[in-house]
Amino acid sequence: MAAFDLQPLLGDVPLDGDEITCVDAWNGNVYVGTVAGAVLHYVAVDGGYMFASRLKPPYATKQEGKEAGVRQIVLLPRVAKACILCNDTLCFYTLPELSPAFGSKIQQNSCLFVCSTDDSDPAGTAIVICLRQRLRLIRIGYEARKIRDIDLGGISIIQRRGDLACLADGRLYSLIDLANQRKSELFPISSLDSSSLPPNIVSPTPTEFLLTTGTQLNEPGVGMFVNTDGDVVRGSIEFSSYPEALVLDEGGFVLALVDRGSGKEIEVQRWDLDLSAPKKEWLAAGAETGVGLCVASSPTSLAVPGVTSSLRRRRLNLTNEPNNAEDARNKEEDEFVSRFSRTQASILLYHGDKISWVVRYATISSLEPELDAAVQRDKGLEIDTKRIQKTIDSIQRMDAQNELDFLTLTYVRQKASLLLFGVLLLETSKDVVAQEAQKKAAEELLMAGAIDPRTVLSLVTPLEEEVVQGPQGIWIPEGLCKTIFSLRSIVEYPKETYNANILLPCKRYLQAWRGKKGFGSVADEASVSQSVDAALVHVLLILDQDSPRGPAKPGSIRSELNELIDKGIDAFDRAKELFEAYSRLYLLSRLYQSCKMPARVLSTWKRIIEGTPDSGGELDNTGEVFLRRYLAKIRDAALVKEYGVWLAKRNPALSVNFFADETARVQFSHDDALTLLGDETPIAKKMFLELLVLERNESKYIDDLVALYLKELLATLHDDDNIRTAVEESYEVYNSLPLPRGTYLQYISSQQTDDNEWWTMRTNLLMLLSRSSSMDAFESIAEYSSVLVPEWIIILAIQGKATEALRLLVTHLGDYDTAIRFCLSSGKPDIFSPSSTHSALRAPFPPRVSSRPLQEAKSSAEESKKLFRNLLSLLLALPDRSLRHNISCHVINTFFGPDEVDYILEIMPEDCPLESLTRFWERTLRDLVSSKRESLVVKALMKVTLLGAVADCADAASKARCVVVNE
């Protein structure tokens, strides 16, 4: 709704006790008619009006009551003439000085009303005179000429639209075709026959008339729209009392002079909107008598207070530093707003001895005072939320009709949103939790008003640091600047309710603003986006301070932080500073990752892993795993090498997993990986070799792994006497175990623990040494042959010294299972292989067979036979009789055959009972019986074969009819 107000035009009009009856204004001239029959002429001079002349129009008979004095002043600017109706006498004058026209020869008596020219008339000089007995059409030019008379008397008011006119007599309204002189009655002015109401006729559109009807002057009146066919259209307009005068103003407004009981007032409402729910405003007329309302012949331009000071843009100076560069911009802004600082007024109100313009100000003139009234500073700052909401509701259905309306509605929404946000600040200053409805209203209005978010951030203590003003600064309407400065520093951070009242609404508001990225409608988008992103990061960091350490949970503040970073942050440098300030290194690394800066990602993770505080704890106990995964994803070989080696020093196992990863984008050959690991990361290098050799069976690297094992094992033996003692004691303990006790390899494997790396390496060495070809390794072991007995046994086997190796196995190590296996393998050195887990003393061993070629098999069998005889000799020389007897018999029973009976009988001691070798003798006898039966079968088969041959020969002779002759 527009704001209407009175702006004085003339005051203290010299009436001498009379009343003003009519007023008109044109081109800097004001003409005032009085009851005394005088016309006062004023001329505009230096921003005011000066009395110019007083005119007493002639008349035939002085009238009384409503017809007394000057009743009408009708100006005809197109022909520079004026029609003045005084005491029922119409006279003509020239404009602007009101000299008599037409030589004072033309006067018309018995005139009731003069209808001015129709705006649609191109000539614009035809008027209608309402005489007591008829209507007379006159064309005014250099002279006045009658066009025609229409026999229709008693007309008190008429309004033309071309040849069609709407008129009224003292009883009802009618339509008349002035050209064809056809009349059609409409409806009565008053629904009561006894009531006499003044008719009102205005024409809001070229095809419509607005007429008033009612019952009494002090009772409500109704405005009805009638088209040129006489049909009632639209809805009706209600007036608080019957209008004494009715005028139209631009923009769809109708103004009625009414009496609401407390005095004469101007009732203002729209006629072109939804008439079922009218919005009205009233303007006091300022007098009880001598009040009238009319339309001036020409509008005037008037200054509009408040528009310039509120809407002109000014730089929001948050630092209170003067800037002379603003002067030029201020001048531009003043020139821009000056277009709206004046308004056109065409409605005149005369009341008492005063004449005023009824001015329709911009919407801001009525709405801003309402917002200002909502802020009370009598007892500290107080903001009336309900009053602000009422103002907001009043503009919900308003549509901008022009540029000023658009600027005004935007300004009002923005100012109201700041005040609602100020309510949250006030509640926080009192440490009171604001209502959700208050927070929601502030958020929604801040977004609807599209206010620069930097202005809101300037009100929040920790977030004002994030405002990026840019080279031009922040330019907003001056009225908003004043509001912001009045709200700043209301509450100091922190308060217990600060998060709930301020930061959470700010978070949602800033997130909504981020959704507007890329829209061209955002002024200074770069600075705004940087401010919004930095502030949102800051808000989330504050809200996340109380979150538990660890990765983000779905729907948490921390997850919102991660999402914000992953989608990209415009304020990169400021975000980096904030993450450092709040010790959120993981978030910093995530920021680098979103910007594709792998070097900084890795360096930040390195800081976290090395102990730099990270308040979020997202990488607690998992930092190295994250780094390893990231290394597999990036393509920068130099970075991968650098941090791969660094990881190898910290977590060898994880680094080995990385260097062996076949899915990594940067691949390393095994040789390159070993070279990269080098001597700086011996543990990782060893583990990588173990992976290649023990898990992937890469025999190429056996010598490297054996050399590395020996280097560490021998160094430990040299430096640590405890290890040397433990090794020597292991032989003694192993020898003391009852039979069957498994192999020595099984024994030390069962005794080692996860934290005993030395024994694990030794176990692996025993399994790999037989496959090595390194002479350096052999020479190194030779120096410790008395300590590393199993290793030396393998070396002897490799060197072909099977007999010596077997001797050490039996006499020094006491590993009879391995000794038997050594014999079975014909002296092969791989006696400590992982598959050698079957105990030769626990169950029968498989027979001595070979799948090798026959010649090789014979050679191997002979070697095995030789070794078994050496083994038996060594066993029979054992000092422990029981041990000697049990193992020797077991070996004979299991591994010696019938062809070695003579050797067994020769070597076995006399005190060895024959029943101890039962299995050997049984097998020998079975072999002998089997051999005898085999001979019989062969002989039988030979006989069968011979008999078959004889039979075949006889059968052939019979068929040939041969004769056998016996000699």
Automatic annotation (TrEMBL):
InterPro entries assigned to the protein according to its UniProt record, in alphabetical order: CNH_dom, Vam6/VPS39/TRAP1
Domain CNH stretches: 17-290
Superkingdom, natural source: Eukaryota
Keyword Protein transport: yes
GO cellular component: cytoplasm; membrane
Main location: cytoplasm
A GO BP annotation: protein transport
Subcellular location: Cytoplasm
Keyword annotations: Cytoplasm, Protein transport, Transport
PANTHER family assigned: CNH DOMAIN CONTAINING, TRANSFORMING GROWTH FACTOR-BETA RECEPTOR-ASSOCIATED PROTEIN 1
Protein name: CNH domain-containing protein
